[in-house]
């Protein structure tokens, strides 16, 4: 007998609602939920393979504990005993910074990843925090922090209403969107065109997204900040800069104009490889469109001027009056956001409150660069202790971060490491304890992070589609127990963690005059919470305290967990709405257009006007049926065009004697890899492209299918030194590489 159950897809940022077909405890099918308030039936091949991803036989079913050097199956009790025994002596001997925490991407796709890492870090008091953000979007957080005073205030393009979208370094037809949660992103782009809007794509590759565009600009990698500086310059020069209603909320407009004076289209054209006329056209089109949004993603962030590019994305939106207005880019308001405080000055955003021990990298948003993890482990210094123990949650930095070989050795030298991960893979194989979460069908889901980045305000929650298999532990409980084991409270009931968070949150909220629960008794409020588990009670609390919440009775029609459960396809909360000045938390209470750290970084951008590397540079690419480092083990999602090949333009291939399908050697600052060439004019001359997340040939992993077609680790070409200095973000795109046919190298040796 089969039944169906709803489940929000956790496999990318689009957060589609799925209808799963379930036989017994097995997911045998997945289709788009047509009644989902947000995704309305959309599904992609990854979502359709939900059952196969869920039932992968290589997923770990029990914890593993290392004994006599070998990882062996163990009970949960043994595993957490080993975690406490492994971590606590390090903390007690060397202090909390000797325990590193690495948080990988899937943390934003699980409830456990949203609810417990903040408690873990606060409890441990470690400054050795490294996350996937510094190989991804940290530049955007830093630019938002500086412009708006809140690193999480990220404007989202109003895809469904805009007249003009300038899309930079993003390929949503493969990625399904990022920092812009939009189920059926491709359909929304087609709708933009159908209603007479225009799409411009800036990408060194002619991607599927670029093919949809009215205009494709094959920019030289790493030069978007220059390009956008010239667009902003043109807006000023041609008197097109008109922030309109935004003007009273802005500070520093004149200083901004002065700061951009040198970046004329003519000056940036040679570096960007885009002619000045085209750049002026970009500016004019942006200004002329009734509404427009500028949207930059991976290609604009993971580059040497990532923070400046991210800042200029918003500057162009602001100068054309498109920030915070329908059709432009707006700040979403999620159901679990805190009750908005009244508008007014805030504390602002500080960078570099501490620095990394070895290279002195400034912290950003409380994090150190993931690129610096290896040296923080393997390099002693006169002061401070190296990282001696590591907690890795949903993270595979051996493949995702620069120089995996060095990190591999560094991880091997740790006194203790614990991984919360469903797979024994390139990173978790170094752990002393592996704590496997259950598959997604057995986990509840709510998108805490992505709802704050969604193109429509809405809220959805799905309970586990299948009950926890015997012997499994919910990831929320794994994380609660991990918090306790790491902070010296091993053995305490894990519900204590949720009770503590609830007590602290309510205790603070009742003191806030703008809160609907101001002055009430926190214990009385806590007693009202519903939900079958600690995490559900926390969700209920956040919903009720949030901008649409019932305020624990203050707004009887408002949201509660019960109300959400009564709407299994979600609740639509309306289109994005103007919110300024409320989201601003800068010291001035305004949008600070030219913050000091940005001004201080502009001379470096000016110097880049003269840089024109003559060799080949490398960029990445994503494939619709792949996802970072962990989905190559699912047969249904591999093969076909989803392969780890080097895209190279026919001109470059001809010049270098590279044949289609033949192996080529790539050499970068961090090492060498060999991959088959795929000669294609989808990549511009002077640029080659290799996808990331491959390289599944290390021993000691349990990835039966992936290891059969391992591919190579593109990040081995990097040595981790190239960073965007303001954000600490790794430079993953526009990286200089040498390319040579393998046969030639061999003949040269003989
Ligand atoms: N060269 C290059 N490198 C890149 C990028 C690039 O574009 N180019 N992209 C970067 C970006 S944007 C990112 S976000 C990072 C991503 O890199 P990571 O942060 O390493 O994330 P993933 O590879 O998605 O998965 C990490 C781990 O999570 C585990 N996992 C999967 N599901 C779950 C779960 O439900 N719970 C738990 N606890 N674990 C789970 C997987 O088994 C895997 O070991 O890679 C970055 N690296
Ligand atoms: N199918 C699939 N979907 C995913 C993922 C996945 O691995 N696979 N990963 C998820 C994650 S973690 C993230 S962060 C998002 C990322 O989402 P996107 O940002 O849309 O990711 P990409 O598809 O890598 O697109 C980046 C584009 O930037 C281009 N590019 C490279 N360098 C430059 C440059 O210097 N300038 C410009 N203008 N363009 C450049 C590349 O050619 C590429 O087409 O995708 C998410 N969704
Ligand atoms: S687009 Fe993303 S969220 Fe939607 S089904 Fe595909 S993988 Fe899942
Ligand atoms: Mo990412």
From TrEMBL:
SMART domains (UniProt xref): Molybdop_Fe4S4
The 4Fe-4S Mo/W bis-MGD-type domain, residue ranges: 2-58
Keywords: 4Fe-4S, Iron, Iron-sulfur, Metal-binding, Oxidoreductase
A family per Pfam: Molybdop_Fe4S4
Domain of life of the organism encoding this protein: Bacteria
UniProt-listed InterPro entries: MoPterin_dinucl-bd_dom (IPR006657), Mopterin_OxRdtase (IPR006656), Mopterin_OxRdtase_4Fe-4S_dom (IPR006963), Prok_molybdopt-oxidoreductase (IPR050123)
Name the UniProt record assigns to this protein: Molybdopterin oxidoreductase family protein
């Amino acid at each position: 007998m089969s039944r169906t159950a709803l489940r929000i897809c956790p496999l990318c940022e689009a957060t589609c609602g799925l209808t799963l077909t379930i036989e017994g405890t097995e997911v045998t099918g997945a289709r788009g939920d047509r009644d989902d308030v947000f995704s309305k039936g959309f599904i992609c091949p990854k979502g359709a393979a939900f059952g196969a991803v869920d039932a992968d036989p290589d997923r770990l079913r029990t914890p593993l504990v290392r004994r006599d050097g070998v990882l062996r199956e163990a009970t949960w009790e043994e595993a957490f005993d080993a975690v406490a025994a492994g971590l606590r002596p390090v903390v007690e001997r060397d202090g909390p910074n000797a325990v590193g925490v690495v948080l990988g991407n899937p943390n934003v796709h699980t409830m456990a990843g949203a609810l417990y890492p903040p408690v873990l870090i606060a409890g441990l008091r470690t400054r050795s925090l490294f996350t996937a953000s510094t190989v991804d979007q940290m530049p955007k957080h830093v630019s938002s922090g500086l412009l708006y005073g809140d690193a999480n205030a990220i404007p989202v393009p109003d895809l469904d209403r805009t007249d003009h979208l300038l899309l930079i370094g993003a390929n949503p037809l493969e990625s399904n969107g990022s920092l812009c949660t939009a189920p059926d992103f491709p359909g929304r782009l087609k709708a933009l065109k159908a209603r007479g809007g225009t799409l411009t794509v800036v990408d060194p590759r002619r991607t599927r997204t670029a093919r949809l565009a009215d205009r494709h600009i094959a920019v030289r990698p790493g030069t978007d900040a220059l390009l956008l500086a010239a667009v902003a310059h043109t807006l000023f020069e041609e008197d097109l800069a008109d922030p309109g209603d935004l003007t009273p909320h802005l500070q520093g407009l004149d200083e901004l104009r002065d700061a951009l004076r040198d970046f004329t289209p003519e000056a940036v054209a040679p570096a960007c490889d885009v002619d000045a006329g085209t750049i002026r056209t970009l500016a004019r089109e942006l200004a002329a469109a009734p509404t427009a949004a500028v949207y930059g993603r991976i290609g604009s962030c993971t580059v040497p001027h990532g923070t400046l590019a991210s800042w200029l994305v918003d500057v162009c939106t602001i100068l054309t009056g498109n920030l915070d207005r329908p059709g432009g880019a707006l700040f979403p308001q999620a159901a679990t956001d805190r009750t908005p405080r009244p508008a007014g000055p805030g504390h602002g955003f500080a960078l570099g409150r501490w620095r990394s021990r070895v290279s002195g990298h400034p912290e950003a948003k409380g994090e150190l660069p993931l690129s610096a993890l290896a040296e923080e482990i393997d390099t002693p210094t006169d002061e401070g202790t190296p990282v001696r123990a590591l907690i890795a949650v949903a993270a595979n930095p051996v493949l995702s971060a620069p120089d995996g070989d060095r990190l591999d050795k560094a991880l091997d030298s740790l006194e203790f490491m614990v991984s919360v991960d469903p797979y024994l893979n390139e990173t978790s194989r170094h752990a002393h304890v592996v704590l496997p979460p259950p598959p997604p069908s057995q986990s509840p889901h709510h998108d805490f992070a992505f709802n704050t980045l969604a193109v429509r305000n809405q809220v959805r929650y799905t309970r586990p589609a299948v009950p926890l298999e015997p012997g499994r532990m919910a990831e929320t409980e794994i994380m609660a127990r991990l918090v306790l084991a790491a902070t010296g409270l091993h053995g305490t009931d894990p519900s204590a963690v949720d009770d503590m968070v609830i007590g602290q949150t309510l205790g603070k909220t009742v003191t806030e005059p703008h809160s609907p629960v101001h002055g009430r008794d926190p214990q009385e409020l806590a007693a009202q919470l519903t939900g079958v588990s600690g995490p559900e009670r926390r969700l209920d609390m956040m919903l009720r305290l949030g901008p649409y919440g019932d305020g624990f009775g203050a707004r009887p029609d408002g949201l509660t967990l019960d109300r959400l459960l009564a709407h299994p396809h979600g609740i639509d909360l309306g289109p994005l709405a103007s919110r300024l000045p409320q989201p601003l938390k800068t010291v001035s209470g305004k949008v600070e257009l030219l913050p000091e750290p940005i001004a201080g970084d502009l001379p470096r951008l000016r110097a880049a006007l003269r840089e024109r590397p003559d060799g080949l540079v490398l960029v990445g690419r994503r494939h619709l049926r792949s996802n970072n480092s962990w989905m190559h083990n699912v047969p249904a999602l591999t093969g076909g065009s989803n392969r780890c090949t080097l895209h190279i333009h026919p001109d470059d291939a001809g010049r270098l004697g590279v044949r289609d399908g033949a192996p080529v050697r790539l050499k970068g600052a961090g090492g060498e890899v060999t991959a088959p060439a795929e000669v294609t004019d989808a990549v511009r001359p002077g640029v080659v492209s290799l996808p990331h997340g491959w390289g599944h040939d290390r021993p000691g992993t349990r990835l039966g299918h992936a290891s059969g077609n391992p591919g190579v680790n593109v990040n081995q070409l990097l040595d981790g030194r190239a960073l965007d200095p303001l954000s600490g973000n790794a430079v993953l795109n526009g990286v200089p590489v040498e390319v040579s046919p393998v046969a030639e190298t061999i003949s040269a040796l003989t």
